[in-house]
Specification:
143 residues; 5 helices; mainly alpha; Multidrug-efflux Transporter Regulator, Chain: A, Domain 2
Length: 143
Amino acid sequence: MVRKQTAQPDRMKVYTISDLCEEFEVTPRTLRFYEQKGLLSPARKGWTRLFNYRDRARLQLILRGKRVGLSLEEIKEILDLYQLRDGHVMQLTVASQKLRTRLDHLKTQRQELEDTIVDLERTCSIVEGMLKEKEKLASAMAS
């Protein structure tokens, strides 16, 4: 997901679902899903959803969290800590722990993948060597 570059957002601006879909390259269904899960809470004017600066910032954090592999539950937990009056210390502490855990998991997966690649390369060499021997034998028998 590559977000379009825009000027610094206006804190007083109201965004429509179309505005955010275009800016963040997501579908309206995605935004409605995040709303259903309690991650976003736009104001309503009739059937129209109106997103404020906070909703836009939350969407940006949701998408960043998804990109690094956090679950929606983990993202919601981090976002919900924003309301605490501790200067965001708890929010940042929890975010740091979750991100570090995710990073460690990815490093483990990378090592496992590298090990699998080495094993697969070795197996391919063995099988290809056996195939060459069989082809030589078949060629000699045909002569």
